[in-house]
Each structure stands twice: as structure tokens, then as C-alpha cells.
Design a protein that fits this description.
The complex is a heterodimer of chains A (about 190) and B (about 70).
Chain A (H helix, E strand, L loop, with lengths): L19 H6 L1 H4 L4 H11 L5 H29 L4 H6 L3 H7 L24 H25 L3 H29 L9
Helix pairs in contact in A: 3-4, 3-7, 4-8, 7-8
Chain B lengths: L2 H5 E4 L15 E4 L18 H7 L14 H4 L1
Antiparallel strand pairs in B: 1-2
Classes of the chains: A mainly alpha (about 190), B alpha+beta (about 70).
């Protein structure tokens, strides 16, 4: 079970009226390398991974939902006051005719989320290598969204999220080392 | 050494005299600190809790802020 804290992991502030940024941000909401994919991937893989690293997948998977919530807050703030005409100009007409003002799990090109974005291979090393790749791809996606955005406050939150990808990647790499049983091996000959 | 000299690498893609657009020069890509760490050593220096919450990591050794258009500017 989970305990919910009614606050965001990091503050989300949007300083420019630019609904087009919402279109870019949904890549991290319902895209292949987005936060939803990450959360579902790790929290599912954790059942069939060795005991030593179950807790890591549990903790990181949980944090990904906190990131998903931050992205949702950003998208909502950027679109909630926009007129249908402004949404059209921002390239969100396709979204509007299907979802109105609601958020939805799709990527920046409006392709809906699919479970085929994630995998559970049941082989601990294969699964952890996928997780490392997922973190690096999410890190890169944050870089490219920052490049597209002139909103300094939004970019501040995105920089925080990118830094978390770096930390998560290292933890998954350490998990691989633990499973290789290199961690505590005596290196004295 | 400056931060982005360590965590950004660059290369210069071939640019032909016949290419229609100006040569943008060096392309930069991120190689963040965790790639070099292996297993994180014990007792590394820490940010204060307040700084860590702001930066997204407790560890200065893992801190790698990305600037807009770092790909172009390095």
C-alpha cells in the first residue's frame, strides 16, 4: 500500500502563457520513455527480481509516480486557461477534439500510451539494463524539452527531474553490481 | 576544471563545402557523472538537506545541471 503526501515532490511554477509547452511535456506523461512507463515498469518487475534489489525498484517506481504528478501539474497549469483557439494554435487541436481540457496518457504526437513500451523479461540483468536505458532516455527527453522551452521556472523543475534520472540510473547500475556479487568481494590476492 | 568540461563531450560532424546550411560547429552531448562512478563510494560530501531538495541530489559528485541548448554551446 502507499501513503500519499498531498504535495508535489518539487514545486511546479509556470511563468509564461505557452500551451505549446504542454504538448511537449506530455511526452514525459504518456510517452515511451515517460514517467508512467517508468513507474509501471519498475513496480511490475520488482516481483521477480532478487530480494536484494526489490526495495530499490519499489522506491524508484514510487518516485516515478511523484514525477508523473509533477508533469500533470505542469500540463494542467499550461492549458487550464487557454481557449480552444489558443490550443489549436499550440498544436493541441487533435487532443482537444478527443479529450477536451482533460489530460491523457499520450506522447507529444498524440499517440496513446501502450504497455508495449515496457517489458518484464524475468531475467534480472536484462530487466535492470532496460531500466538503466529507460533512465538515460528520460534524461535525454528532459534535455530536449528544456531546449524547446523559454520558461525559466518550468525549466527549473525540469532540471530537478533530469537530475533524478541521473541518480536513478546510478542506483540501477549499482543493483547490477550487487547481483554480479562484485560489491563485497575481497579484492586482495 | 569547469563543470561542463567534465560532463559534456563534443565532436565536429563533417561539413561539406556543398552543404546548404552554415556549419553549426561542435556538437555536444552529456556524459553525466554517474557514468564514471561505478558503485558510489561511502562518505562522499553532501549538500545540506535544503540544497539537496532544490538540486535533486544529496551528492555534489552527482550534480550535473543541464542548461538550455547545452547541445549547441557545450
Amino acid at each position: 500500500m502507499w501513503v500519499y503526501e498531498k504535495k508535489l515532490q518539487y514545486p511546479v511554477k509556470v511563468s509564461t502563457c505557452n500551451p505549446q509547452l504542454a504538448k511537449f511535456l506530455v511526452e514525459q506523461y504518456g510517452g515511451a520513455d515517460g514517467e508512467l512507463a517508468a513507474a509501471l515498469r519498475y513496480l511490475n518487475q520488482r516481483y521477480t527480481i532478487p530480494d536484494k534489489v526489490v526495495g530499490l525498484l519499489n522506491d524508484i517506481g514510487t518516485e516515478e509516480f511523484a514525477h508523473l504528478e509533477m508533469i500533470a501539474a505542469m500540463v494542467y497549469k499550461l492549458t487550464k486557461d487557454a481557449t480552444p483557439e489558443q490550443l489549436k494554435q499550440a498544436g493541441l487541436a487533435d487532443h482537444y477534439v478527443n479529450h477536451g481540457e482533460a489530460l491523457f496518457y499520450s506522447n507529444a504526437a498524440e499517440v496513446p500510451f501502450t504497455a508495449t513500451y515496457i517489458q518484464a523479461k524475468g531475467d534480472p540483468i536484462a530487466d535492470l539494463y532496460e531500466d538503466i536505458a529507460a533512465e538515460e532516455k528520460a534524461r535525454a527527453t528532459y534535455q530536449w524539452i528544456i531546449d524547446m522551452s523559454d520558461d525559466v521556472d518550468l525549466n527549473d523543475s525540469l532540471r530537478f527531474l533530469r537530475e533524478r534520472e541521473i541518480v536513478h540510473s546510478l542506483r540501477f547500475r549499482e543493483a547490477v553490481e550487487i547481483l554480479k556479487e562484485e560489491r563485497d568481494r575481497k579484492k586482495v590476492f | 576544471m569547469a563543470k561542463n568540461q567534465v560532463y559534456t563531450k563534443s565532436y565536429h560532424p563533417y561539413h561539406s563545402l556543398n552543404d546548404p546550411c552554415p556549419d553549426p560547429g561542435e556538437k555536444h552531448y552529456s556524459t553525466p557523472p554517474h557514468l564514471y562512478m561505478g558503485f558510489q563510494p561511502e562518505k562522499l560530501p553532501q549538500f545540506t538537506p535544503k540544497e539537496a531538495l532544490q538540486k535533486g541530489t544529496l551528492w555534489p559528485a552527482l550534480y550535473d545541471p543541464y542548461e538550455k541548448n547545452q547541445k549547441l554551446k557545450g
